[in-house]
Design goal:
rod-shaped, mainly alpha, single chain, 75% helix
């Protein structure tokens, strides 16, 4: 036992170090988990921003007449007494057709 004791102890320490690095709860697994946490936090921050934007849009659609009008006009609606004339793109001049696509 005395002859091989140091060798066995060294081998045991080596095995423990390898397990601490590559094991299921080791250093590499911990780094992988931390990177996943950072990704989820970034996604959550982005979703919170989008949610705040959507809440503001809902608020504007409920209260701001200019926003309501802009959305209605985007859907092809008109005020009473207005007439909407749609010209097919094939009949529009080239310069006007290019600006209408924007």
């Amino acid at each position: 036992m005395r002859q091989h004791g140091r060798g066995l102890l060294g081998l045991l320490v080596l095995l423990l170090v390898i397990h601490d690095i590559f094991g299921t709860h080791g250093f590499l697994a911990m780094r992988h988990t931390q990177s996943e946490i950072q990704k989820v936090k970034a996604d959550l921050t982005q979703l919170n921003r989008e949610n705040a934007d959507l809440v503001q849009q809902v608020r504007d659609l409920k209260t701001d007449p200019h926003t309501i009008e802009a959305m209605g006009r985007g859907m092809g609606l008109a005020r009473p007494g207005e007439v909407i004339i749609k010209i097919p793109e094939s009949q529009m001049p080239a310069a006007t057709a290019a600006s209408a696509k924007r």
